[in-house]
Amino acid sequence: MIYDTDILIWIQRGNEKAARLIERDEDKYLSIQSFMELLQGAKNKTQHKYTRDFITDFRFSILPLTENIGHRALIYVEEYSISAGMRAADAIIAATAIENNMTLASSNAKHFKVVKDLQFKTFKP
């Protein structure tokens, strides 16, 4: 399963339900976009290290931005940004999940509901 950034933020805030969700999963993935968002949210180098250690300790695999993912994300932004407010970051995350044939777990269903081919698991904190 691929996890949206919000799931890891819930874990960092101490949400046990989010922690149990990832602990049950043998194969954990993040889009490079989510990884960058987590690092961007850090206030200092200590938090950068904490984020990197967390990703390593819980054995997340980071999925790269490929040409196909970029192209698909561009289509989503073009198709859904005006009608549904699709943002570039969410388009990249959705495209990463679809291109890798994975289910995306997120508590932000409204960000992704317009993407028809997306396999989606709603997380309720």
Which segments are poorly predicted (pLDDT under 50) over 5 or more consecutive residues?
A: none
> What shape does the CA trace take?
globular
Structural class: alpha/beta
Number of helices: 7
Could you please say which CATH topology applies here?
Rossmann fold
Estimated share of beta-strand residues: 5-15%
CATH superfamily, please?
A: 5'-nuclease
The succession of helices and strands, N to C, reads EHHEHHEHHEHE
Query: Reading side by side through the largest sheet, how are the strands ordered?
Result: 1-4-5
Separation of the first and last Cα atoms: 18 Å
Q: Biggest sheet, open or closed, and with what strands and sense? A: 3 strands, parallel
Count of structural domains: 1
How would you explain this protein's 3D organization?
The protein is α/β, with parallel strands linked by helices and 125 residues long. It has one domain: Rossmann fold (3-Layer(aba) Sandwich). It contains seven helices and five strands, in the order βααβααβααβαβ. The protein has helices at residues 5-12, 16-23, 32-40, 45-57, 67-84, 88-99, 109-112; strands at residues 2-3, 28-31, 60-63, 103-106, 119-122. The strands form two sheets. A three-stranded parallel β-sheet has the order 1-4-5. A two-stranded parallel sheet has the order 2-3. Helix 7 (109-112) links the parallel strand 4 and strand 5. Helix 1 packs across helix 2 and helix 5 crosses helix 6 (88-99). The longest helix is centred in the middle third of the chain and has 18 residues, at 67-84. The two termini are 18 Å apart. The mean pLDDT is 96.
